[in-house]
């Protein structure tokens, strides 16, 4: 995290400025020529450059440079107290209010809503008799007034994260509440808290200065506010008295705000981004590749390279020099171990790689049209119409807020432009065709009301609705149980015959490959190692890795006694 922050020019510059200012402040007792309150009546309103008074002296003959240096310390202490109290109170209440039961949630919410209604600066002025004018006590109270900002951030993040599967997994693995909060929840809120703390430090400094400007607090304490107030009174006699503290206060608060912005860019930008449809993909490749493919090829992938930036910005290729082609009506199986690059290859064809992905080389031609470099609008004309997609996890591809029918109708209307009534008829017929026994009921159901197998049938119905020329199926049966897998497989086989679609089938499942694929491409660590028709790949695999994959198929009739086969570079 620190490496990332320091590599950002804005963060590095503002951090350096703040470090220099606050170190000078800390050294004030050693380097300041005078005490902050040492007055010399002979030096009243001494101009800039007076010997011993480089920035001049104020209306009481006090050295402005010395007071500035000591004021930095007052600002630092104010920021430290205000921010620490806000973070401690806000984080604790946010964790408790977000994680525990409804009563605790309502109680903390009510308390913090009440806190937010209090008039901040006015309250601090009113409480002066309580604080005795001590700016530290004032900043302590101000920390409570800042806490709702942190509380809201933490509470919302906790509410979002507490029902995640990994938090459930931690719970069932026996971790106590505080371990879960510390390990799984606090790590999520850390970034946003750091960002908010930077902004709050600036707010605390400005508020303390504002109070001092108004004369709230001890006159003995050197502070930017008190200096600005004194300079203000002398504005026409000695304008620079007003300039120096204003300038330094401006530099400190601007640096804190810019630092907060830079932290937000670096820390929030570092969160893993989900795959986004329509986010476009960055292509740095020259997409012109000699077209030596057979004219009947529907999809031709040539020399495809996909990379992701590593921690220090270097590109790591996860797909290299991939060549594939699929003819009209052909079913091509793309097999390989987990992480070999199958899904990346499929996603690049659909134009849905994550935004950080970079296509480093190659070309993807679909029906003689180059797909790489198309913008989202151009891709939208192809996706869902001519190229359709069936995902691995059907449930996560259906929006839980809408009924199944409404989601399918939306897709059909976008692809075909038919009326709502026609689209409904078509969807009901498709659901029926895809083996859903009560299409009307499924049409009116929410995703959580149907089973995984039904959800996959729904998505298959949606995918084939526009009679696409190419279907990309990413492990379409993996998330389903064995009997449902067989039914879905039957359905796919029937639909392929009926619609004469080409299919790119990404799978681990050799049974599925043997059943419906005409040809197979085998991928290993980002490269295609073997391509051939299904029969010859099964009968006589040429590559050692293909043999290893085939040898790993479980045989139901034989009890395996041999040790697992391995090849260099393959993971188990
Ligand atoms: N957003 C990402 N950032 C960095 N690397 C990524 C990202 N997405 C995928 N990869 C890497 O790309 C490689 C190929 O991933 P891909 O999902 O294509 O594998 P796969 O063969 O489909 O695996 P599986 O069968 O498990 O889905 C993996 O090493 C993975 O770590």
From TrEMBL:
Residues 68-260 form the ABC transmembrane type-1 domain. It is found in: Cell membrane; Membrane. The keyword Nucleotide-binding applies. Pfam families: ABC_tran, BPD_transp_1, oligo_HPY. CDD domains: ABC_NikE_OppD_transporters, TM_PBP2. Its main location: membrane. Keywords: ATP-binding, Cell membrane, Membrane, Nucleotide-binding, Transmembrane, Transmembrane helix, Transport. It comes from the Bacteria. SMART domains: AAA. InterPro entries: AAA+_ATPase, ABC_Ni/Peptide_Import, ABC_transporter-like_ATP-bd, ABC_transporter-like_CS, MetI-like, MetI-like_sf, Oligopep_ABC_C, P-loop_NTPase. Residues 301-550 form the ABC transporter domain. The chain crosses the membrane at residues 12-32, 75-98, 110-131, 137-154, 193-214, 242-263. It is a multi-pass membrane protein; Peripheral membrane protein. Belongs to the binding-protein-dependent transport system permease family. This is Dipeptide/oligopeptide/nickel ABC transporter permease/ATP-binding protein. It comes from Myceligenerans pegani.
